[in-house]
Amino acid sequence: MATQQSRSAARLMMAPAVILLLGWMLVPLIMTLWFSFRKYLPLRGGDQGWVGLENYARFISSSSFWPAVQTTLIIVGGVLIITVAFGIVLALLLDQPMWGQGVVRILVIAPFFVMPTVSALVWKNMFMDPVNGILAHLWKFFGAEPVQWLSQESLQSIVMIVSWQWLPFATLILLTAVQSLDSEQLEAAEMDGAPFLKRFWFIILPHLSRAITIVILIQTIFLLSIFAEIFVTTGGAFGTRTLTYLIFQRVLESQNVGLGSAGGVYAIILANIVALFLMRIVGKNLDT
Amino acid sequence: MGRIQLNQVQKKFGDVEVIPPLDLEINDGEFVVFVGPSGCGKSTLLRLIAGLEDTTAGHIEIDGDDATMLPPAKRGLAMVFQSYALYPHMSVRKNIAFPMRMAKIPQEEQDRRISSAAKALNLTDYLDRRPGQLSGGQRQRVAIGRAIVREPAAFLFDEPLSNLDAALRVGMRMEISELHKKLATTMVYVTHDQVEAMTMADKIVVLHAGVIEQVGSPLELYRNPRNLFVAGFIGSPKMNFVEGPEAAKHDAQTIGIRPEHIDVSTTEGTWQGTVGVAEHLGSDTFIHIHGIPGCDPMTVRASGEMSVVHGDTVYLTPRADQIHRFDAQGLRIG
Ligand SMILES: Nc1ncnc2c1ncn2[C@@H]1O[C@H](COP(=O)(O)OP(=O)(O)OP(=O)(O)O)[C@@H](O)[C@H]1O
Ligand SMILES: [Mg+2]
Fold first, then answer.
1. E strand or H helix at B18
2. pLDDT at residue A284 above 80?
């Protein structure tokens, strides 16, 4: 047990870090809230005073708001489903003893180290380019018409790129969970007459549920704010404008800081709704 | 029915031969115990029977049918693991029901078997708990319950009691023995504890480095150990081995005398020695005696009343009809 003295000393020594962190988070948040209630057009008259809730009303009634929310949710949901599903398959495969295991594992993790901007550029120019991309060549090889990925299948393309980036993370977390499963449990289930799919469903999947929960929660936090992938590939066109991207456009392209700030507050609310929703469905896995 | 027959069964892990070809017959309804020191291949042999490992060579027959290539689920055997291997996210009821669910047994029949197993194993009050909320002994019983409801041809146990404390172990030992009497189903039981082997088995299989040293009833093994290894392994405390001139007097390379077959006296006897450590158990006293030619120390079992202390001189006399003689190869003579 800490004594009274050591506790107050600890508090004193932690204070700078805590204050710094608080400032770090609170200052931008308060500034966002502040600007969201003002008419602030940096290139067209600057700060023009209070407007009450006008920014909020304008942002939500804009025709791009609900599509942006929808796009955001589709991307987050799509990427979550793909990364968790393939993450489980990859984790199970990587858990098998095989030749060159170490190298394979590093290769699987590699995409995680590539910066989002770079990976988006690589996908855009090397894979999805309708003339020179590898996928275009593949399609032509089989005699099909190359797909105009980023303009025709834009949302799917972005989901694909982002999934590729996050798959290693999911795989890695799920792999450690797979490895922690007691092999005697699987053998017991095998003796109890459960074929592989039943063993997967009744033993492996429940064992992984906690790891899956963590993957979903952490990824959601980051996926709600993806930006570089959209900026680099479609620039928000072809129905790929997420809420984050919409805010970016309002602030930088239309130079309306007040409106963008109101959007920022909506983004916070959306993130909290999603988080609450996720905690409800998957969060209960964390207490058992 | 549960007759298991191993014909020239061999197991190699890579180049390492863990079990050289061996033959073994387990009769229907028998309680067979595999016993041997750690790493001798007991678990491996059990897992070969269960089908969790593939045989390198040889055949396994269950009830006269070749089961060598059958997957574990098709062999009709149930196994209780050392770690219990319960499914942690399922309630006790679901754990016990799992094999029946896999076998698609009707719900009413499942419920009937679960309640009768729960009654037999004192689990009725715990059916809705998770394994994590049970004590070690209760988990053990759940694992046994999960095995019973399948009504298998034979039960396989891999050191099921080694995670329990000493008192509980004695209790569970009795329960498993009673279960065997009641079900009259073949049981194959692996342990490294010779006391468990002696008290539970109809037939003991002593293994050493994958080789079967001797097969027989507990008393057969105790009275007529076939070689030095079995002689030293069965019985507690261990048999004393005497070499050199004393053994030569009996025309043997080594003679063995159990601690309970030596008379101790403070006045006269065949051998003279000094007391090292005396372990007083109350009912008996185990005395370790130094200075006996060819055997140091020699352990004897004296009655609890015997009061000797470190440094006392004592005289020992082995009972002539209880001396085991072994030749240079370590095999029993006569
Ligand atoms: N999968 C494996 N790969 C390689 N060697 C193995 C494997 N499993 C067991 N062995 C070896 O086989 C030998 C017998 O192992 P086994 O588990 O059957 O011993 P055991 O008699 O059950 O011992 P214990 O009483 O400690 O459980 C050991 O030397 C072990 O190292
Ligand atoms: Mg073992």
1. strand B16-26
2. no
